[in-house]
Specification:
Elements: H1 2-10, H2 16-36, H3 43-50, H4 54-58, E1 62-66, E2 71-74, H5 77-90
Antiparallel strand pairs: 1-2
């Protein structure tokens, strides 16, 4: 998604369309995720589902804290930086 913003800027385009698209995509995904839960108010269920999927592996998520009242996760940006560097090297 950041690639979309980078390309818009590179072509001198206003990036507001991309920011709205990314926002709307996140809202849609969040709603789908909420509907997949048995109890959307259960923090433990949310934490378990959020960190037990392909995306959790791709972004190398690390659970920092997971209680009934608090869930914190760290996204490892090293992978994201490596991918960006590989893409930039192709240009």
């Amino acid at each position: 998604m950041t690639r979309m913003l980078d390309e818009a800027k590179a072509h001198g385009l206003d990036d507001k369309f991309a920011i709205k698209a990314v926002h709307d995509y996140g809202v849609d995904n969040g709603q789908d995720f909420k509907e997949s839960m048995v109890d959307p108010h259960d923090m433990k269920e949310f934490a378990d589902k959020f960190t037990d999927n392909l995306e959790a592996n791709v972004y190398e998520m690390e659970t920092v804290k997971s209680t009934e009242d608090d869930f914190r996760v760290h996204f490892n940006s090293l992978l994201i930086d490596k991918v960006k560097m590989q893409i930039e090297s192709l240009n």
